[in-house]
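Q: My labmate handed me this sequence with no annotations at all. I'd like to see what the chain might look like in three dimensions before we decide whether it's worth expressing. Could you predict it?
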Amino acid sequence: MHVPDSTFRGFANPVDPSPAELRAWAYHPDSVPLTSMPQDWDLLVSGDHLVTTLFELAMDTACPARRFALHCLYIYAADGIRTGFRAHPKRRLRKLVEHAELTGDHLVRTWAYNTRVLLERPDLFDYHDWCEGGLVRENRRIG
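A: Here is what I predict for the chain of 143 residues:
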């Protein structure tokens, strides 16, 4: 994976970062601490515009902000499933899950497994687990 330039100069608009800005920040997350980001920044960046970038970051075991990216993937999956895929395309989520199952490490494969379980059993949604990082911190399978 290509590691961006050694300096990150900040976001032009932290509420709507570009994929390149997010990628650069992810390799230098101490340059702009999460505590200085807008409230619920994780929810703001967990959309279609950045999901491919977030997935790439979550797949990169050398990325310092990998766990943050994985957390955002949990938000993205839950948001799509809970809205009946009005928020995000089902096809895109399924492709990410399939790619994670084939090439991801244990952390990413656990996300893929949990996403498949939630697809089958939306009643297993727990806000703390999916949107507040519980599943990332505990790295456990649901169901």
